Amino acid sequence: MMKLVLRRVGVSTFEAENERGQRVRVAGSADLEARILERVPDRSVLPQADAYEAGGAMRPMELFLVSFAACSAMDVVLIVTRQKEDLRELTIAIEGDRADATPAVFERIRIHFEAPGVDEAKLSRAATLGVKKYCSVGSMLRDEVDVSVTVSAPSR
Hints:
Layout: E1 4-8, E2 13-18, E3 23-27, H1 30-37, H2 60-82, E4 91-98, E5 106-114, H3 120-134, H4 136-139, E6 146-152
Parallel strand pairs: 5-6
Antiparallel strand pairs: 1-2, 2-3, 4-5
Helix pairs in contact: 2-3
């Protein structure tokens, strides 16, 4: 079982803490903050914001993409190293397109793996398996989201 606690630390900013004491800040958009502020007549009741409040925290859907990329990357590293490839570097770029509706779920996600000096065919197979088969975060998307995987393995 995983257990986390979130505490409100700003108008639309929360700090999450896991059982090991690690923390991350998550914030809503500027639009959400403005909508909250227009409904609060006495702003003295709000938590006192700090430096994170001014755009210094990730938004929830960004954290989802980070989780998806990191989860997939761990599987890719395991698969590529099992293939006896010399994986010195791995960069993952991920982007998502959200629905223009509420809830604004992801409709498309593109994830690109770059590993200089690795056999591109092996990297492609590892990336596809990591993203589409082994990543627990990606598995939660089911078939409702179009996920595409690309790779590049430029020479060092």
